[in-house]
Amino acid sequence: MSKDIRIKKGLDIKLVGEAEKTTTNIPLSSVYAVKPEDFHGITPKLLAKEGANVKAGQALFYDKNDERILFPSPVSGTVTEVLRGARRKILAIKINADATIEHTDFGVKKPSSMSSEDVKSHLFLSGCWPFVKQRPYDVIANPNQAPKAIFISASNTAPLAPDLSYTLKGRELELKAGLEAITKLTEGKVHVAVGKNEGSFFQGISGVELHTVSGPHPAGNVGTHIAKINPINKGEVVWTLKIEDVLVIGELFLTGRFNLTRTIALTGSQFSKPHYVTVIAGATIADVIAKNAETTGTRVISGNVLSGKEVKENDFLGYYDNQITAIPEGDDYEFFGWNKPVFNKISTSRALTFSWLTPNKKYDLDTNTNGEHRAFVVTGNYEEVFPLDIYPMQLLKAFMYKDLDEMEALGGYEIAPEDFALTEFVCVSKQPHQKIIREGLDLMRQELG
Amino acid sequence: MSLKQNLHNLKEKYKGTKMAPAFNAIHTFLYLPNEVTHGGTHIKAADDLKRTMNIVIMALIPCLLFGIFNAGYQHYAAIDAAKGVIREASLFGNFINWDNFVVGAWTVLPLVLVSYGVGLLVEFIFAVIKGHEVEEGYLVTGMLVPLIVPVDIPLWMLSVAVIFGVVIGKEVFGGTGMNILNPALTIRAFLFFAYPTWMSGDKVWVHEAVSRTGTADAISGETVLGAYAQNSNLPELGNSVLAGVDKMDMFFGFMPGSVGETSKILIILGGLFLIYTKVASWRIILSAIVGALTMGLIFNGVVNAGWITDTSKFFGLMSVPFWQHLIIGSVLFGAVYMATDPVSGSQTNKGKWIYGFLIGFISIMIRVFNPAYPEGVFLAILLMNVFAPTIDHYVIQGNVKRRMKRLKAKTA
User: Which residue intervals define the domain NqrA N-terminal barrel-sandwich hybrid in the entry (chain A) (predicted)?
Assistant: First the structure.
């Protein structure tokens, strides 16, 4: 039975620079890169050394903890450089792309006639397993643990998020095949949460449970769906996927090719023409934003403004990202900025701030912190934007003083850093919530397994 | 070179040195810092702790201004009353005038200056020693302190109390956000126990009442609450300003008391402003008022049932109609400005209901049963400050149990 999810707590951050619904094909970049840090919690072991020729879909490295989990190259070409950091940590594997992409052929498969194990091994072999993530800990799913359910978010409510009704258009076949494959991975249910506009794409797809979500951000976060539909208890595991990644899996089964070409949104006020582009994951940022974005005084983010990662022009598009955002840097002082009335910034309080008067106005926010880092003082404001049945400040404090029992008891198994993006945004004390949560989850994973 | 650039250069020059927090404090007072986000969310909401604290100060300014005029008004009214002339207070007649302002400003502004001067000095010293930034907590405490003391409190006593309050009440716990007790009330509690003759009784609440004691010009400096505690009937107090005080005077604040707590209308307006700006918790304010009314009703019930008679020393305050407890003493001031301190109060929404209610309830209980020192609000709030973490603990355990129950239901 489907269950409609409607949340009231949350905050829609409306920014200038929504992507216009036109799509440009970005010409192939000359250099692509896969960054192991995009896959949090794995220990990479190299397969393709410098100078090796690889095809798209061919594994570049695997996870030392589970050799079946492969990380494929998005393009065909030559591995030119393995960038290493401190203690020889692999930062990026750079590939000089061929003029035409050659794909490894994994063979056309029909998921409906495959066994669960066959689907799993096909996902391992083709390098699609990293798309499957798990809660607790928000890391790539451990294939040895059976999930009680799989949650797929087909709703994106983050600021300036790409419109899925636009990016999913015409991809119904891949969607169907992908979802068919995923239903094989669990004996539990596969829950797909869709926004009101995306509902039509999923009509007639059997085997999954559809939920309609509405309300302010984080209505589209998979963490919200899990909490409302089937919350995680100690000892349980659920797997999560993003709908864009389901398309890649679907295409793999339909064509036998691993194709990381994505339609991503270029958003934010620093783009002269915010719109959609098709691009292969791992492309050079400079190629993606070429001649479109203001480059001085700009923060370019691979992902959205709440949970994306800052990138420079010579960096690369994140493996999972479906959006590049460019907003102004705020590295300037503002005279008496702490006590004069504010009309050009967003706030949930009414302390001489006026964004609550104009809920539909779009703001051009910059990266200024609007204040200094302090201890937790104000109470009750996180709860306004946090829809889960968890005490956010108490959980954050438990994560900071690293009391494992409390971390467990207060809901540590149910959360991912992105669930705390809004509380971090509204935080008067400017605490780094997502960092606290990420470090705490890593500790829990290490200590509690 | 502009001021902005000069300050920036100074900040860079002293970066990493002991004195950096002191320069930064002045810099960030004038300018919002140029810090940008790194990791996490790339954008941040508009308000910071300074802005939040600033709102509380704004809400307190009317109480301070009223307190200044009231200090002068009560002084002259007491002199008149000693001569047998009972005044009728009128806001734009005999209240807001130059004479009252001069006396009020002369007595109240030094309290404000000492409170901020000494308190911020201690904060700066601690920031420099410990190498952390000067935090904003004292901005509000510094304004609250002069409003909750008698007008004539000697400045050296106030200085000692402020040093005690900031060091023992806050800094030893780690500074703003880490304290267990409300710092302003810690300062008041120190004064109350260290110098009781200056913090209670029938003299200290009117300017010069203490210094004129025993002279031919003696004046009375009693509060309404003190008079009720002595089972006095206000109109019969012929030589006191209280003889002319009626309920409207209590509501508008034309009566003796601590500097800023007498005007209930201004406290209510300040409270509404704090609730509207979402800086103070409406849950705490509302539940504290409900708690006070409940206790008042219980005592009225006791009187109506005839369980105590007018010979009892508790009779005076017990028989005060329950709602009048809100317009005498500092229950409202405590509920709006003290109980809502987010650091020392309950932090969970459910906890705030319980915390506030008990503050109101216990305030009136202490008021009635402690007739020698009838103002129990600050003691009630300090007591509940201590219990706030316990209240939160049980509220949070409710959430934890719900999670455990879910697990049991699964495994059963």
Answer: 5-98
